[in-house]
Write a structure and sequence with these properties.
This protein is α+β, with helices and mostly antiparallel strands. The chain is built from two helices and six strands. It has a six-stranded antiparallel β-sheet with strand order 1-2-6-3-4-5, with helices on one face. The longest helix has 9 residues.
Length: 142
């Protein structure tokens, strides 16, 4: 796969029409959705910039409770990096080499249902690909 792919398909929350087996997000069902969670995922085989990824992770909205990233990085392409975000704490470490595994980045984020902007997340992480645009370009006129 040449470009990032996010899986964030919506499904019916109101009726009892059954669960879509291709849906990748899950939540604890509560009639008013106050306790509902959503899982967002993303994959790419392109190497990411650790600096850009760390910047994106440090700016995740407060409604993202947990994010775990296994990283194929441009900075250390032979080593597997792991980025974990819990609240506002961001930890980056290396977890050995890729061995026989194909290097790829996999991201999973858990947050409050109805407050994740999947398109914005996908765009920010796509911009972490080495050589892509800054994930947070400066505002116009600055």
């Amino acid at each position: 796969m040449a470009e990032g792919r996010a899986r964030d398909e919506p499904h019916d929350h109101d009726g009892h029409t059954g669960h879509n087996p291709h849906c990748n997000h899950h939540h604890h069902h509560d009639a008013n959705h106050t306790n509902a969670l959503i899982i967002w995922s993303y994959e790419t085989d392109q190497p990411l910039s650790l600096e850009a990824l760390r910047e994106v992770a440090s700016r995740l909205p407060v409604n993202i409770y947990r994010c775990k990233v296994v990283i194929h990085s441009a900075d250390a392409p032979d080593r597997r990096a792991v980025l974990q975000v819990v609240g506002k704490r961001v930890d980056l470490s290396f977890d050995g080499d890729w061995g026989q595994r194909v290097p790829r980045t996999q991201i999973v984020a858990i947050g409050t249902y109805g407050t994740m902007d999947a398109a914005a997340f996908r765009e920010r992480f796509d911009r972490c690909v080495k050589g892509a645009a800054d994930p947070y370009p400066p505002a116009a006129g600055k």
